[in-house]
Amino acid sequence: MDRIDDLVQLLEPEVASPPPELQVRQRDALLQFMAQADKAPVRAPHPGRPPARRRVWYVAIAGAAAVVAAVTAIFIPGSSPPHPPIATPGTSAVLTAVNRALANVSSDIEEVRTSTPAAVHLSSTSWIDLATGACRTDTAINGQPSLTVLVRNGTAVFIDYGLREWWTRSTGGVTCEPLTPQKIEHDLSTGHYTLARPTSFDGEHALELASTAATALPHGVTKMTTLWVDATNYLPIESISIGHASERTVFTWMPDTSSQADVFNLAVPAGFRHVAAAPVTTP
User: Fold this and answer.
1) pTM of the model
2) What band does 120 get if pLDDT is binned at 50, 70 and 90?
3) Contact (Cβ atoms closer than 8 angstroms) between residue 102 and residue 235
4) Sign of CA dihedral 20, 22, 23, 25
């Protein structure tokens, strides 16, 4: 039995002595493995080769090392097998989680940046106070300010930077709301989104959703949209749509603080002329 102890120590020379009950299991495992090796058939030695019995013992010792390691891994206190990978939720679970997350941002300020990489680069940044409904959209063409629209308390303010004019009118028929949570929820429920894959977005875990939908006739076109949502809080991060043109939208969800709300305190640039609003036309 001393020889067994020596073999165990030889197999794990740098490991602290295991508890007595573990030593018993190790010795039993080693004895069983060696007994099987002793029963192995012995072939006549080939000239120049070591006896077959010695080769069996080499295999037995190597195999015993694996057995002892396995027994040690199973019975050492505090050890545990590797955790299986976490299963990715299905499409239905993800869409439900996104809708639930959007319902929880009703007091935030949503910032939406949209750009269309075309010959004439059109971009816009919108802010929506999800609690009050106030919204502002700044539009730029080739990086130069073009139009600002602010809708708040039943009044819409327009600032045209090309004409250096501004005007006000009632909000009837005027909206500057981009992809609000309500619109995103509608797109999720009718846009046939499916979960494409888990991925990484700006170094963070994300889920990629894909949608293919056809626009209305007579000039219908297939529109493909990819939406990325944060895998932790399920809020939208970014979307890219490809149809008649490509459109990239970036979402930011900000708490409603006084500094964030300053964006709705619109100041007309000096020297801009106040003009009467154009008459409202109905189609």
Assistant:
1) 0.63
2) confident
3) yes
4) positive
